[in-house]
Specification:
9 helices; 6-stranded mixed sheet; alpha/beta; 31% helix
């Protein structure tokens, strides 16, 4: 499944939030979006999801324009994973993931055995089937995020959009979530993920898209796009790119330069 964003521009009143954004991504890729706050990452996601309609340009999935498709039609192609949140009602993990079947069903139908089986399969895929009867509110932040990913997978769409999925998670849970993201890309999902951690892009992304001043500053592999100069341009901090030698290979890391 391919995603093509062509000459995309979006303005709020007289303020340009996105201007002439162009990029393509394909099945099996994990694309990390980087950019300072206000760079337009969330607006780009909302345009792709069909939640903002007043854009100029086009967004195409498998060569078909999304401009006049309904939210229901878009939900069958693209799933959205928000940041983990505190729920109002303590639904079980299974019930929470089952909500993802709404995109597959007609208005007056209810989930049957087929949809329930899909839920069990996705929970198993993410290694959280043992949590099926636990209350969502009783889970850790990392477990909640995995449940939200499972809910998105249940939609059976092959494009996943994740808006800062590791925000507010501890170091261990950030790593576990990003490992799962990388596995999903290898299994054939196209993933667009925003993060404020450049090392997530270094370690887990196949491509990096950097937004600055309403447009794409760079788009390519981590090696092509992520340099100390780029990080300073985005975030205004001075870093060095170093190689950490481990028993499983060399790992690139950014190290701050202190005055």
């Amino acid at each position: 499944m391919t995603l093509d964003v062509k000459d995309l521009s979006f303005s709020f009143k007289s303020h340009n939030i996105l201007k002439d954004v162009n990029f393509s991504a394909d099945t099996g890729e994990c694309v990390c979006l980087l950019g300072e706050n206000g760079a337009g990452k969330t607006t780009l996601f909302r345009c792709i999801l069909g939640l903002l309609r007043g854009y100029i340009g086009d967004i195409m999935v498998d060569g078909i324009s999304c401009k006049h498709q309904s939210i229901k039609e878009m939900a069958r192609k693209i799933s959205y994973i928000p940041q983990a949140h505190s729920p109002t009602f303590n639904f079980t993990v299974f019930q929470t993931a089952l909500m993802g079947t709404n995109a597959l069903m007609d208005k007056f139908n209810t989930p049957g055995e087929k949809e329930k089986q899909i839920v069990y399969e996705k929970l198993e895929l993410l290694g959280i089937s043992h949590l099926a009867e636990r209350g969502y509110a009783e889970l850790s932040g990392g477990e909640r995020q995995l449940v939200l990913i499972a809910r998105a997978l249940v939609q059976n769409s092959k494009i996943l959009i994740m808006d800062e999925p590791t925000a507010n998670l501890d170091y261990g849970n950030q790593f576990r979530i990003m490992q799962q993201v990388k596995k999903l890309a290898k299994q054939g999902y196209l993933i667009l993920l925003s993060t404020h951690n450049p090392e997530h892009a270094l370690l887990f992304a196949g491509k990096v898209l950097i937004l600055k001043n309403s447009n794409i500053m760079l788009y390519g592999t981590p090696k092509e796009t992520l340099s100390p100069k780029t990080i300073e341009s985005i975030y205004g901090v001075n870093v060095e790119l170093q190689t950490l030698h481990t028993n499983k290979g060399n790992v690139p890391v950014f190290v701050p330069c202190f005055d």
